[in-house]
Design goal:
- By secondary structure, the protein is an alpha/beta fold.
- The chain has two domains: 146 residues, P-loop containing nucleotide triphosphate hydrolases (Rossmann fold, 3-Layer(aba) Sandwich); 164 residues, no CATH class.
- The protein contains eleven helices and six strands.
- The chain has a six-stranded parallel beta sheet with strand order 1-6-2-5-4-3, sandwiched between helices.
- Helix 6 crosses helix 8 and helix 8 packs antiparallel against helix 10.
- The two termini are 33 Å apart.
């Protein structure tokens, strides 16, 4: 069952009120579903915080750092150490891992030990849009809170172009290998344009800072800020790339919905109902699921830092090539 933010909070509030709150929760849902806000609302609830839970001394958070966007084992160990300490305010110690799917192997194994033997009077929350990237042993020790997708989402220009590309691609009755590589090239162009726009935006932000502070500092800050904006641009690009990939997955998801009650289920892309309805008639369910699996494999390879272009080409051959 997928919750709205308020319904999820009410579910957790009742569990807390009745003394049935679990020691670990996995809060998952796509971008914009309210995962982050819910985690802080729950942290505030268990500690009776009226203000901002982010600033409370018993609420500890970690998330990906550096341009690699990875959660390192040093971060999870620091979190574990904080949770082992006595509560600063006499309440419950809360540990939140944002983008938990970005834990590397060492961090995952380290945190697994904390889940297996949670510190006394602690509450753990893992927040991620990609729970399938977590270890099964971690998943099995958390109570799932699935957030519903946002109901009103405006497509970005890039998403609109991508959906139009899919419509044109599948307007061909039997697209061949050359057509698949054309789709790969057009997808790569979308990624390249997104990266360039993000880099240009970061460069403009850095120039504004330079103009503001160059007269009042010794200039040593500039190298650090350049590194910061470089990492920020990489992070933003990975988010943009993820959005494009999620768009592909949601498009195939709409095909499945068209096969199984599309008229009564809400589609992610109602503006492309005709396209996905045609695909629902063209491919059997097993074939659609195979193609979705290929794209999920691409997401996993992105998480493993496999060479981007090669990963895209392999996945697109499976997801958009001829039926198996």
């Amino acid at each position: 069952m997928a919750f709205s933010p308020d319904a999820a909070f009410e579910f957790l509030r009742r569990a807390n009120e009745s003394g049935r709150l679990a020691h670990a929760y996995l809060i998952t849902g796509e971008t914009g579903s309210g995962k982050r806000a819910l985690s802080f609302r729950l942290a505030a609830l268990v500690n009776g915080i009226a203000g901002d839970a982010q600033k409370h001394p018993d609420v500890h958070t970690i998330e990906p750092e550096s341009k690699s966007r990875v959660i390192r084992v040093e971060q999870t160990r620091e979190l574990e150490k904080a949770l082992q300490m006595r509560s600063s305010m006499g309440g419950r110690k809360v540990g939140i891992i944002f983008d938990a799917d970005r834990m590397n192997a060492a961090a995952s194994n380290s945190f697994l030990k904390t889940l297996e033997e949670p510190p006394a009077n602690s509450l753990l929350m893992l927040v991620t849009a990609h729970p399938e990237m977590l270890l099964d042993t971690i998943l099995s020790r958390c109570i799932l809170v699935q957030m519903a997708a946002p109901q009103h989402r405006d497509l970005t220009p890039g998403q609109t172009r991508l959906l139009d590309l899919l419509g044109r691609y599948f307007s061909k009755q039997k697209p061949g290998i050359a057509d698949v590589f054309t789709l790969v090239r057009e997808f790569s162009v979308l990624l390249s344009e997104a990266k360039s726009a993000i880099q240009d935006e970061g460069g403009a932000e850095l120039k504004r800072e330079e103009a503001l502070y160059k007269q009042t500092t010794d200039g040593k800050w500039l190298e650090d800020r350049e590194e910061y904006f470089k990492g920020l641009a990489e992070s933003r690009y990975l988010q943009a790339r993820q959005l494009f990939l999620e768009t592909l997955l949601q498009w195939w998801g709409d095909v499945l919905r068209q096969q199984h009650g599309g008229e009564t289920l809400m589609l992610d892309f109602p503006s492309h109902t005709t396209d996905t309805a045609q695909m629902a008639q063209r491919f059997p369910t097993a074939e659609v699921l195979r193609r979705i699996t290929a794209l999920e494999g691409l997401r996993e390879n992105f998480g493993r830092n496999v060479q981007e272009q090669l990963a895209i080409e392999v996945a697109f051959m499976d997801a958009f090539g001829a039926a198996a």
